[in-house]
Amino acid sequence: MISFPSKQAQVQTTIFTKMSALAAEHGALNLSQGFPGFDCSEELQALLAFYSKGHNQYAPMAGVPVFKQSIADKTSLFYGIDLDASKEVTVVSGATEALFCAIHCCVFPGDEVIMFDPSYDAYDPAVRLAGGIPIHLSMDAKNGFQIDWEELARTITPKTRAIMVNSPHNPTGSIWTENDLEALAEIVKGTNILIISDEVYEHIVFDGQKHYSVLLHPELRQRSFVCGSFGKTYHITGWKIGYCLAPEYLTKEFQKLHQWVTFSSATPLQYALSDYLKEPSHYLGLSDFYQRKRDLFASAFEGSKWKLLPSHGSFFQCMDYQEISDEKDVDLAERLTKEIKVASIPISVFYEKAPGDTILRFCFAKSDEVLLEAAHRLVQL
């Protein structure tokens, strides 16, 4: 057997793969991995079938032009921001690729990249593979998982290359306000620090609130890679189609990496989505759709010992089990999957140094029947 040193010796199979496999093994209701439990619209499926004829060769490296223009048009309609589709939009094979390319095109060995825990598990490994140094700052559940801007300001050093931000937030469901944009802008003003913004849940924000993209602040927009995805928006996580929005000077560097990662993304998918994007109601109604599911799931826990934490966006509900068990969250998540057959994600896996919270994350992007049955099983504890 040939041996060689691992480039990621500390990295194991992701918790999402592990819990989904465990759920399948035990026949559990899978509320762990963040994917919808229902199909995309018949209209989108019909568009894909139509464009599967005659559009089956390589797309241009940066994306099909009409699709890039549709993304720019949507950005203009939703945010009131005009983008040059040919110079500021790149189509990628999922937001994880966008995040990876954004990190690798600007992070050099020894550069520091700040991220906020609990954080999506793709951030840290991508930084390390680029030779960068991840700097983890923790957000407190008692403070609604809000960023401590004073702590961030103290953490900035001459080595700080980039800051990873995420709103609506996975795994906690917290969202940014206009004040958060102002706070971040004030900290990075006058520096060469770049922003890598994960905004895949941009159209899933609840209770009449709005999504504050970094695009909305001039200071942040000029230094930001905005990574988005159609997987969460249109219930097509398996299509792996996303995008990166960035100023021209950043887009040029981004595309240098993108061409060596996937080069281009699936052609018929791009044409189908280009047409589908032209109808705003396909994404403008998403917040109401998921808020009904959030509220349905939450209502089933009234009077139980589960404590539901606020979920302002995304399709995740975090719940504190302190009054139910003193087990570690990883142990409890595994036991619930095996015994009552409901799979979740333990929050501790999203931290560099877990604070010891008793919190599990549940995905409510499932059918009403699945949500109610899962809740029924959980309240029996």
TrEMBL record:
Transmembrane segments: none
Molecular function in Gene Ontology: kynurenine-oxoglutarate transaminase activity; pyridoxal phosphate binding
E.C. number(s) listed in UniProt: 2.6.1.-
GO-annotated cellular components: cytoplasm
Presence of keyword Transferase: yes
Every Aminotransferase class I/classII large domain range: 29-378
Record keyword Transferase present: yes
Cofactor(s) annotated in UniProt: pyridoxal 5'-phosphate
Keyword line: Aminotransferase, Pyridoxal phosphate, Transferase
Domain of life: Bacteria
UniProt cross-references to InterPro entries, sorted A to Z: Aminotransferase_I/II_large (IPR004839), Kynurenine-oxoglutarate_AT (IPR051326), PyrdxlP-dep_Trfase (IPR015424), PyrdxlP-dep_Trfase_major (IPR015421), PyrdxlP-dep_Trfase_small (IPR015422)
NCBIfam families per record: PRK09082.1
Record-stated family: Belongs to the class-I pyridoxal-phosphate-dependent aminotransferase family.
Name of this chain's protein: Methionine aminotransferase
Organism: Aquirufa nivalisilvae
Lineage: Bacteria, Pseudomonadati, Bacteroidota, Cytophagia, Cytophagales
